[in-house]
## 1
Amino acid sequence: MVNIREEIAKILVKHIDGMELADIVQLVEVPADTSHGDYAFPCFKLAKIMRKAPPMIAAELAEKISGEPLFEKVEQINAFLNMFISKEFFTKAVLEEVLGAGNGFGRSDEGAGKTVIVEFSSPNIAKPFHIGHIRTTVIGNSLYKLFDFLGYKVVRMNHLGDYGTQFGKIIAAYRRWGNREEVEANPISTLLAMYVRFHEEEKNDPALTEEAREAFAALERGEKAEKDLWQWIRDESLKEFRRVYDMMDIDFDDWSGESFYTDKMPAVIEELKAKGLLKESQGAQIVDLEPFGLTPAIITKSDGTSIYLTRDLASAIYRKNTYDFSKSIYVVASQQDLHFKQLFKVLELMGYEWAKDCVHVNFGMVSLPEGTLSTRKGRVVFLEDVLKTAVSKTRDIVTEKGVNADLIDETSKTVGIGAVMFNELSSGRIKDYVFDWNEILNFDGETGPYVQYTHARCASVLRNAAAKYGAAAMDAAAVEKADLSAVQSPAAYELTKLIYAFPAAVKDAADKYEPSVVTRHTIKVAQAFNKFYHDEHILVDDPAERSAKLMLTAAAMQTIKNGLGLLGIKAPERM
Ligand code: ARG
């Protein structure tokens, strides 16, 4: 995409001695007040070089550059050069770019040759995949899409919670009360029920505690019976998780999980020891982080068992050695802020300079109107049920709206699941929020359905045009022939400006690890298109005028599609 600030600087540099192009680019600004132009250039810094008063310099520059086709008008006001970009030039550049790039509009190659790891979702085996997991899953998936779009090689990791003393309990419980068929028919809820029962009965039956301890010890020693059981529980849980991922069209490149790192931990513990970082504290091995204002990092517990943090250390080192990442991203709730501060600090103390490339992308909590979530009390809302509810509620809405019968199935899925995902990505990730069906499924709000509907509306305008006037070419050569003065009204121009700003929004979202930047921008494009659509008549008789309007429609549609794509959401052509 033509970079307007750079184009301006290229013109200015010809008339300014003693200042580099890059410095001029830095100085070009966008005035808050649009009556001062689309761009402005302050001349204060030139006073010294040119030995003249800034207003005089601005006046001279205004005169020298005003004939350039890039500008509609150039004015001097005090020390400022105020530039109004030629709408013709701008509109042409934007339409040519978007129609030329298509699905690649907004893409870049800034990440070429670099690898980014995005670890996300990471639910715990044998535990419910619940509504609390939705944010990491959807935000992580979007970050994967964003970095991929920017040319990085991205490795999607699901760091499954598939290890820990709780597996001793699950195995013990299963041996007492479980049976294969029941688990296979309904893995998670059966295993969960057994786990809950274990906790209840353990209080009065110390033998259970002992059985669990023994089972876990056997698992750690790698005994076949326990390993097989564990593997089976893992496989059954994964089947259930995959079903949910499939509903959202989400996949991973690496499913290793915590268990994968158990045999890599002794080396880490040795290394910590060798580097003089380990200290004994009440039988446990710790790294003292007090000088950094953090509580101690516990590396091994007093009973010798390793813990979560140690597995994360092993995993971080493994990731670096295996993928040589330029960034390793962990999409995990803010509840674990301390854990990641400890993890990154210990890596730094171990002398790994790449610790600075590890990023904890945290986020706030989801709660339900009926109260916060609690696995212990059995108040679990399964993510799968939420997605199914979304589909069925959407079905009711679209049926009432009179959607074509043969589109109802498809639309309810695309829109229902898209709505839930979009909602997760609409506000800054750090904010806590309350899950509210009315908001999520509001077709007129700033929602997934609204944006998808706008996309389908663009598609329908283009279909109608093709039916009435025949298929029209949508490429740079056609832009040349169209009457672009027809798309310079305030509504059209606003839309064009938002389309132009899309690639920058994509980059900003990745820089901040904040997909909501793309979400917000995509909503704005959809709103601007709808304003254009309502204000103006698109299918006019004049071919050159109609063609320009259809191209703007196609460009808006492409931008919305690419935006939704980066959020992991489908863009339906019909609804
Ligand atoms: N399984 C953990 C949980 O559900 C999340 C894992 C986060 N990732 C990590 N590398 N520690 O809380």
## 2
Amino acid sequence: MAFKTLDEAELSGKRALVRVDFNVPMEDGRVSDDTRLRAAKPTVDKLRAGGAKVILLAHFDRPKGKVVPSMSLGPIVEPLAKVLGVPVAFAPDCVGAKAREAVNAMRPGDVLLLENVRFHPGEEANDKAFANELAANGDLYVNDAFSAAHRAHASTEGLAHLLPAYAGEQMRLELDALDRALGNPERPVLGIVGGSKVSTKLDLLSHLVTRLDKLAIGGGMANTFLYAQGHDVGASYCEKELAETAREIIRLAGKNNCKLFLPLDVVVAEKMAPGAPARVRDPGSIDDDERILDAGPETVERLCRAMGNSKTLVWNGPLGVFEIPPFDKGTMEAARHAAKLAREGKLVAVAGGGDTVAALNAVGVVDDFTFVSTAGGAFLEWMEGKTLPGVAALLDKRLPR
Ligand code: ADP
Ligand code: MG
């Protein structure tokens, strides 16, 4: 591991500034999904066990550098205390006198949540003076927010240069999983990229074809590839202006010995509506009023076979309009098969992306996968081969080995 982890940190009596991701979904002022709160527990537990004072830094929503009361982290305090099983104090500002007083009142093992870092413009500007103000309340810095690591903000990047910096437990888990998926994977590695658009995943596709042994393209974006190969896609969602780009990706895959799987058959319907009458079609025989809404049975079967012949799977993007049955079928079957192979220890299965996670949750296979990243944008940027500033800043502090 190229990062300092909490195992190597001197913790006793130290003030640990911990960047977490508490940007949780809220409904009527209440936390509706506490996954991100639970994700912070291993790091908090470890710090408390070592006798540190745990000072949590987080953002919520986009207040754009101003105090927006409806974006306070206050409503997080109670649910967080419940998840952690310890009292959580709250300071109504993340810097200045209020923060300092709250920190000075802490004893080893205490947990304090500071108010939304984005209430200050210096956070997103990664302002040095603001980062210094944050750093004044800590002896060490722990970054446990992989999902915010694609942003170079004061609390995600700047602080790592001002205090001894460590990767938190969740950060470590995420980086380990991604390394197993794409950094140093067991080969052959199969990728699945689906979702609606080629345009939002161009960097992803171009990078993956240089890293993977096989890549299956599904979802709406596969329509653009079929169109690029001369097939009529009827009324399907298709970015026709990207046909040449799709052909370039096909060529790039060939050059890099990445075997591309485009749909062998597709599921079409005239309406994108629940229970709409669906038919299976060859890519070459789609009527003008038909829309491609899912992968066909042969395509899914070949994909499952490819999983069986691979050691690692990395997946982003559903194979069809999984929100609207019966067009969830391809995604469901593929997900179940990946989950089975992962459960049997035959496949390292890693997935991520907002809708992908929702789909895997709907199928109920998240726990069977080796790792499912909820990091959204950071996960995608990592998959695109980009350097994440929050991760790079931790690497800067690498110990000589
Ligand atoms: P993620 O959030 O996991 O990165 P995307 O946002 O790229 O995934 O894509 C998910 C969306 O793609 C879903 O809303 C799904 O309905 C849509 N989609 C999948 N297949 C098709 C299709 N054939 N036609 C239109 N939309 C599709
Ligand atoms: Mg999405």
